[in-house]
Amino acid sequence: LEAQPLLTKALTSLTGFSIGDILAQKFVNDDGKPYDPMRTLRLGSFGFFVHGTTGHYFYGFLDSKLPGTKPQTVATKVLIDQTMWNPIFGLMFFGYLNVCEGKSFEEYTKKVKADLKTAVMGSWAVWVPAHTINFAFVPPSQRLLYINSIQIGYNIFLSFLGNKKVDGEDKEL
């Protein structure tokens, strides 16, 4: 983590997203379809290329602008994370899957309209308390690693939502 923070965070994000998708496919999705390794590859690569890297820079930026662990500082960081970063993250998540699956911009906008609100609001139950702990007690260099440990469970929800069909869609996302 100290020698290569960006790579370490990208690799832990790859792991968290991959494990979350495997668990979602094995235990949550009840569609009777066989395990889809390409789906796990898409989710894992999102973790590696997008979540790990953007998280590294976003949380570093947030900590540089709002240093410390005073309750007001922690609350401000959680508020910024959940009202600004959370929707941006959702747009990146659905956009990445859309591009990887070769879908059109119209399909992307339908997905965003159908599921972004659910993704953002669903995250509040997990990430408001998790980030309160994160910003109050976790050292800045380890924030994304902490997030990735919780992210495994949350990724089951994201994997399900990211691969849910949108009305009128013939094939799985």
Automatic annotation (TrEMBL):
Top-rank lineage group of the source organism: Eukaryota
Topology in membrane: Multi-pass membrane protein
Transmembrane is among the record's keywords: yes
GO cellular component, one term: cytoplasm
UniProt main location, coarse: membrane
Transmembrane helix recorded as keyword: yes
Cellular location(s): Membrane
UniProt-listed InterPro entries: Mpv17_PMP22 (IPR007248)
Pfam families: Mpv17_PMP22
Family, as annotated: Belongs to the peroxisomal membrane protein PXMP2/4 family.
Protein name: Peroxisomal membrane protein
